[in-house]
Write the structure tokens for this entry.
Amino acid sequence: MNGLLFAGWMTLAAAAPAAAWLDLSPEDPAWLEQDRAARESFARHMESALPQDLLWGVRVDEYFREAPPAGVEARIEEARQSLQRGREFYELLKPERAIQHLQAALKTLREIGAGMPDLSLLEETHFLLGMTFQALGQTSPADDHYRMVLLLRPDRALDEAAVNPLVVERFERVRQNLAASLPGSISIISTPAGGRVGLDGRPVGRTPLTLSGLSPGEHYLSLAADGYRPWFGLVLVPSGGLEKKEIYPEEGARIERVRLRDRLFDVGAINAPLADAQSLCRDLGTSWLILTRLFRREGKTFLEAGVYSSSRSDVGSLGPYPSDDASLAQAARDIAAWMRGERPQRLVVRPPELPPVQPPIRPLPPPPAATPWYRTWWFWTAVGSVAAGAAAVTAGVLLSRDQGVRIEVLR
């Protein structure tokens, strides 16, 4: 499924009600930049062709993504307060009390996980825990927390004017040890496949995925897939080894929306079932749904578009349009004309299919060369027969002669 769902809301004049636009192009790694440029060009021409500007106040792809868990904001505030109390006790030179509040903040933040907009609170919690453990002389847990800080923000630098120089020294030592450690790898699969993976707060790709060159030890791993509850947790990367992680997220409240979108993706922009398209229109609160798809023929990119009304049964099947700027401008004008009630003549006509490629005919192997007569079976059979006859004659002659052997039979 395409991770670059391109969507927008368009507010038109009274004669042209609001419409939602959803791109169903498959994600092709070899054409990512070209497809992105084509979509951006098409968006600009849509803004020009429609009566009013193309608005992006609500993204249609967010309609399919699982909403954050209820109460997540309250829990983030709870963690923030625990973090603040831990900082205050650290500054009051009460490290034991500080650790209690900081560990409570860490536990809450890890439970919230993917519901957080970013991992900056986790980073700050780890840093304060590192300083507090160092103040207690517990260097091993201090180093563990400093390591997590550097994983979450590798370029973080400490100012000796604001931070204890001993903390700066130990922090930089952990940085050096981290760079010198033997890296490991992690292999991640998920059901469904195509989940968006984050490692230590940064997006790294989609499942199935293998990441190498990772520092050994714990890392924060997250996975998000439309229609499923986000997953967040710790994964342990072995030094010089490979960790395999299988993730099976639970279905969320929006799974039926995703299944509807998947059906549209499977059939394409111009073949969507009218009932599905109209259902999506109603759910989005719009009167029109515009589906587009980029596809390839003979090494060239084309765009096709389907225009669906929430209340009418006629469907605008437009295209194919080459992906050059002028053709995409024409596509936008044709869509706007269809929504105004006009019927452009440019209906979908597929580019000619290439004839099926026949596999090359493999020539028959040459006949084997004639076997020399002295290697044939009949020649050596005859030789064997002659030799056997000669041996028999020789034996008879020898036996007929007086050999000087006397045999005497005694009774």
User: Anything to note?
Assistant: The longest strand covers residues 288-297. The two ends are 109 Å apart (CA to CA). The chain has a mean pLDDT of 83.
